[in-house]
């Protein structure tokens, strides 16, 4: 019998296997029904959005694939417990083989492009998940060399430790893994990053991990004047903007006009809300997913007025110049703003 797609684009996927990775991390392997193989085709580095109900409350969370599409493996995500977090702990504690979870089709722009440059990857903690998929895909399907800087608190929190060792044995000098353990050397320092980066010019850089780790890597890459186009970032949480106060010269916004699904709605604006929140307050089902400014699902174009983004890991400078915004991160800055969803 055909599997149905719910109104929000989710499909019910059966869990084929649950694999314990560390004391606080599991991988969930999905069975994708034959009639949805195309829908769940993905690129290394992409993620699924899960819809789960915990204690009667519905939540959506994004989890990157740790499997590689180049190796014909079943779809797999890897979830690390977030202390105090609702969904990550629920997935670690309760999900068993045979359970079913709603998932949207894969999304994300943290992917390999057609470049032939060597790859330099930085992963911190659960940030290894998309990086593990990317590096195995690059090793299996290209001749690119990969260097990984992998930071963890301590040896027992290293996810995919044994598989990484096996890959080093298999690929020899095409793969170098540099482990950094805070328990041995304290947190990652700019000097350690600069040392690791020596001789990596002309590479493509992939970075995923906790905010402070990502900030330190970004700063080290800036210091080396690496062009922004060769740096790929995946943030699991929204970066906290340095300044959330209205920018100088910003007007008080009164009205936001939203064009969505060929309907035009005049929405009241409440100070401090993003354009996405404004659309929701007006009763509109505006597209969204990660809500951290990473995935690009909530993209829309500001065709009148202006808005500034708190965080943008998805749009290029050219797209921003053309008025495109991530509505989950966009704060209007003019008296009236017109937002058009494609
Ligand atoms: C594109 C993308 C890909 C991702 N991929 C992965 C992945 O591969 N693996 C992975 O493990 N994670 C991944 N994440 C992160 C994941 O989506 C979740 O954000 C993470 O699992 C935490 O969710 P949670 O429900 O457990 O925590 P939440 O319940 O959302 O809580 C998050 C944190 O906020 C704190 N908190 C919650 N409510 C409050 C409150 N009222 N006051 C103060 N503090 C509070 C919690 O204590 C916790 O520390 C990804 C995120 C994105 C955006």
TrEMBL record:
Residues 8-113 form the FAD-binding FR-type domain. Keywords: 2Fe-2S, FAD, Flavoprotein, Iron, Iron-sulfur, Metal-binding, Oxidoreductase. SUPFAM superfamilies: 2Fe-2S ferredoxin-like, Ferredoxin reductase-like, C-terminal NADP-linked domain, Riboflavin synthase domain-like. It comes from the Bacteria. Its cofactor is FAD. The keyword Iron applies. InterPro entries: 2Fe-2S_ferredoxin-like_sf, 2Fe-2S_ferredoxin-type, 2Fe2S_fd_BS, Beta-grasp_dom_sf, Cbr1-like_FAD-bd_dom, FAD-bd_FR_type, Flavoprot_Pyr_Nucl_cyt_Rdtase, FNR_nucleotide-bd. CDD domains: fer2 (cd00207), PA_degradation_oxidoreductase_like (cd06214). Pfam families: FAD_binding_6, Fer2, NAD_binding_1. Residues 254-342 form the 2Fe-2S ferredoxin-type domain. This is Ferredoxin--NADP reductase. The lineage of its organism: Bacteria, Bacillati, Actinomycetota, Actinomycetes, Mycobacteriales.
